[in-house]
Design brief:
The structure holds 2 protein chains of 2 kinds.
Chain A: H1 10-38, H2 43-68, E1 71-73, H3 80-93, E2 99-103, E3 110-113, E4 121-125, H4 126-131, H5 134-149, H6 152-159, H7 161-178, H8 191-235, H9 238-254, H10 257-263, H11 265-269, E5 279-280, H12 291-306
Parallel strand pairs in A: 2-4
Antiparallel strand pairs in A: 1-2, 3-4, 3-5
Helix pairs in contact in A: 1-8, 2-6, 2-7, 3-5, 5-8, 5-9, 7-8, 8-9, 8-12, 9-12
Chain B: H1 2-7, H2 24-35, E1 37-47, H3 53-73, E2 76-81, E3 87-92, H4 96-112, E4 119-128, E5 137-141, E6 146-150, E7 152-153, E8 157-158, H5 160-170
Antiparallel strand pairs in B: 1-3, 1-4, 2-3, 4-5, 5-6, 7-8
Helix pairs in contact in B: 2-5, 3-4
Chain lengths: 309, 191
C-alpha cells in the first residue's frame, strides 16, 4: 500500500463544507422569499438574466481574465524555461498542461483561470518572473496548478451566482420603483402595496448580497489555503512557497497606489467579485487569507516532512 | 470521490504506477528488430527532492542500497541535480535487465518512505545502431504508467518522425502515452 506523508486536513475541509452549505442555504431561502413576495411570474426573467451572467463568466473566464490582465499566450519557443517548469509539474501531478501566458506588468503576481483543466490558462507577470528565484517561481506555479486541479474558477463562479442575482434584483427594483412601479409582475390595483413589496425586495436582496459577499470571500480564502497546501505538497517544499509568499507580499506593499487603482476598475466592471474570473496569487487581500495564516500552514507541512520515517 | 475532492479542494498527491516498467526488456527486442534502435546501456530515474530530514534520511538509505546493488552487478552510478531542481540518478550497465532492476530499486525505496509522489519519470537510453548518432530515449511517466519516445536533436528540436515510428513499433508491447501533449521534452538530460 502506498504511503503518504501528509494526513488529510479535516479542519479545512469541514470549514469549507460549512461555508458552502451556508451559501446553498442562503440561496434556497432567497429564491423562496422571492417567490413568496413577488409571485412566480417575474422570477423566470430574473433567473434567466442572472443565469446568462453566470454562463458568460463560466465559459469565458479564461478570455476575460487574460484580456483584463493583458496576458499574452506564449509558446514553448518564446518562454522555454517557463514551459519546461510547467511541463514537469504537470507530469508530477498527472494533469493536462494548461496554456501559458505572460502579462507585461510590474506587479508581482500570477493567476490561473479557465473553467476546467482543458481550458485552463496559467498567467504570470513579468514582475514576478524578475523578482522570484527559479524554485520560488516553481512553487508559485504549483500553487496555481492546484487551483486548476481544484476547479476553483467553476466553484467560485457558481458560488458567486447568488451575489449576482441579489444585486440584479436590487437594481431592477430601483428601476421599477423609479418608473412608476408595477414592473414586478403581480398586477395589483393597490399602489401603496406595490411600493411596500418593492421595498421589501430591495431590503431582502441587499441583506442577501451582503451575506453572500462575505461567504464567497470566506470560501475563496479556504480555497487559497487548499491551493497552498496542495501546491506545497506537490513540489515537496513548503518553505519555498512560504518564501515566495513573503517576497511577493513585501513587494506588493511597496507598489505605488496608482498601479493598484489601475487594476481596480476590473473589479467594478464585473458585478460579481473579480475573484470569479481568476485566481490571482496575491492581489485582492480580502479574498486571500492573511499571510501569517498561510505561512503557519506551510510551517506545519514542513514539520510533517521533517519527521523521520 | 473525484468530484468531492475537487469541491473540497483537497487533491491528493498522485501515487506512482510501477507495473509497466518491467515491459522495457521485451520492448527492447522489438525496438531493435523494427526500428534498429539498441539500448545505450544507460538509464536514469528523475525525482523531485523534498525538503526536510525525512527525505534526507530516505536519500541516504537509497544511496546505500544503490551502492551495494551497483557493486554487485558491476554497473556505474552517478547522481546529478538539474537546473529545474530535479535529481537524476544515472545508471550504466550493458545489461538492460540490470538497469530495470536498479531503476525499480530507486522507486521502491522512495515509495517505502512515503515519497512515491516525488517520482517524475525514468528514461532508458536507446540509439540507432551503426553510429549514425540518432538517439531515441524511452521515457516512463510514473503518474500515468505509460511510456513515450523522446528523440532529441541539436538545438532543442525533436525528431518527431523517429518518435512516431517508435510509437508505431511499440504499440503492442508497451502502454504508449496516447495524449501527444504529454510527451514533454526533457532537454539537457544527463544521459
Amino acid at each position: 500500500m502506498a504511503r503518504t506523508r501528509f494526513p488529510a486536513d479535516l479542519g479545512l475541509s469541514s470549514r469549507m463544507l460549512l461555508t458552502m452549505f451556508l451559501l446553498g442555504l442562503l440561496y434556497v431561502v432567497f429564491i423562496g422569499a422571492l417567490v413568496a413576495i413577488l409571485g412566480t411570474r417575474s422570477l423566470p426573467l430574473v433567473l434567466l438574466i442572472a443565469g446568462g451572467f453566470l454562463f458568460f463568466q463560466y465559459f469565458f473566464s479564461d478570455r476575460i481574465a487574460l484580456f483584463a490582465m493583458r496576458g499574452q499566450e506564449v509558446s514553448p519557443q518564446q518562454a522555454p524555461e517557463l514551459h519546461q517548469m510547467i511541463d514537469r509539474l504537470c507530469a508530477l501531478a498527472d494533469m493536462p498542461k494548461p496554456r501559458v501566458a505572460v502579462s507585461d506588468s510590474d506587479i508581482p503576481n500570477a493567476f490561473a483561470t479557465g473553467r476546467n483543466q482543458k481550458h485552463a490558462v496559467v498567467c504570470v507577470t513579468t514582475g514576478i518572473l524578475r523578482r522570484l528565484s527559479e524554485p520560488e517561481l516553481e512553487a508559485v506555479l504549483s500553487h496555481e496548478l492546484s487551483h486548476v486541479a481544484h476547479r476553483d474558477v467553476a466553484v467560485m463562479t457558481i458560488a458567486s451566482f447568488l451575489g449576482i442575482l441579489a444585486g440584479m434584483v436590487v437594481r431592477y427594483s430601483f428601476y421599477a420603483g423609479a418608473f412608476g412601479g408595477g414592473g414586478w409582475g403581480r398586477s395589483n390595483d393597490n399602489r401603496d402595496n406595490t411600493g411596500l413589496v418593492i421595498l421589501l425586495v430591495v431590503v431582502a436582496s441587499a441583506v442577501v448580497y451582503a451575506l453572500s459577499f462575505l461567504l464567497t470571500r470566506a470560501l475563496s480564502r479556504y480555497r487559497e489555503l487548499s491551493a497552498d497546501r496542495a501546491g506545497a505538497i506537490l513540489i515537496g517544499r513548503p518553505s519555498t512557497l512560504a518564501s515566495a509568499l513573503v517576497k511577493v507580499s513585501g513587494e506588493m506593499a511597496r507598489i505605488p497606489t496608482r498601479d493598484l487603482r489601475a487594476a481596480e476598475p476590473l473589479n467594478a466592471f464585473f458585478f460579481a467579485p473579480a475573484l470569479a474570473q481568476g485566481f490571482s496569487f496575491s492581489s485582492l487581500f480580502h479574498t486571500h487569507p492573511p499571510l501569517e495564516r498561510r505561512l503557519e500552514q506551510l510551517a506545519k507541512l514542513e514539520a510533517q516532512l521533517g519527521r523521520q520515517a | 470521490m473525484r468530484f468531492l475532492d475537487a469541491l473540497l479542494g483537497r487533491s491528493k498527491p498522485k501515487q506512482p504506477k510501477l507495473d509497466a516498467l518491467f515491459g522495457v526488456t521485451a520492448a527492447a527486442i522489438t525496438l531493435e528488430a523494427s526500428a534498429g534502435l539498441k539500448p545505450t546501456g544507460q538509464a536514469a530515474v528523475c525525482f523531485k527532492p523534498a525538503s526536510g530530514q525525512g527525505f534526507a534520511a530516505a536519500s541516504e538509505e537509497l544511496r546505500g542500497v544503490l551502492d551495494l546493488a551497483v557493486q554487485e552487478a558491476g554497473s556505474t552510478l552517478r547522481v546529478e541535480d538539474d537546473r529545474y531542481g530535479y535529481r537524476w540518478v544515472v545508471l550504466g550497465d550493458p545489461e538492460l535487465e540490470d538497469l530495470v532492476t536498479a531503476v525499480h530499486m530507486v522507486n521502491a525505496t522512495l515509495e517505502q518512505h512515503g515519497f512515491g509522489p516525488q517520482l517524475l519519470c525514468s528514461v532508458f537510453g536507446f540509439a540507432e545502431a551503426g553510429g549514425s548518432g540518432r538517439r531515441c530515449h524511452l521515457v516512463y511517466l510514473y503518474k500515468r504508467g505509460s511510456f513515450y519516445p523522446f528523440a532529441p536533436l541539436q538545438g532543442e528540436r525533436r525528431d518527431n518522425e523517429l518518435e512516431l515510428q517508435v510509437r508505431g513499433a511499440l504499440g503492442s508491447d508497451l502502454p504508449i502515452e496516447p495524449e501527444l501533449a504529454r510527451w514533454f521534452a526533457l532537454w539537457g538530460i544527463p544521459l
